[in-house]
Design goal:
HTH_17, Arc Repressor Mutant, subunit A, Helix-turn-helix domain-containing protein, alpha+beta
């Protein structure tokens, strides 16, 4: 007879967000996230033909990739 694994040894399931939930979290419009998904900059799981879900770790990776460390003087001067 097999012993079931102890409850603390089962890894937790990843958290998934709808595009609306992710957009609300980032305070952006959902259209922007659809563009980022199509461009390949944000990874999303497609379920069927109409359902998209974004894994928590993929959303955090996207945020990390978009984070600026600060403008260099050259890019700041060029902008103005």
């Amino acid at each position: 007879m097999l012993n079931p694994p102890a409850p603390n040894t089962i890894p937790p399931l990843p958290t998934y967000y709808t595009v609306d939930e992710a957009a609300e979290h980032l305070k952006v419009h959902k259209t922007m996230l659809y563009r980022e998904i199509r461009a390949g900059r944000l990874i999303a799981l497609q379920i069927g033909t109409k359902i998209l879900r974004i894994a928590h770790q993929d959303l955090m990776a996207y945020i990390g990739a978009q984070t600026l460390t600060g403008p260099s003087e050259q890019s700041y001067d060029a902008a103005f």
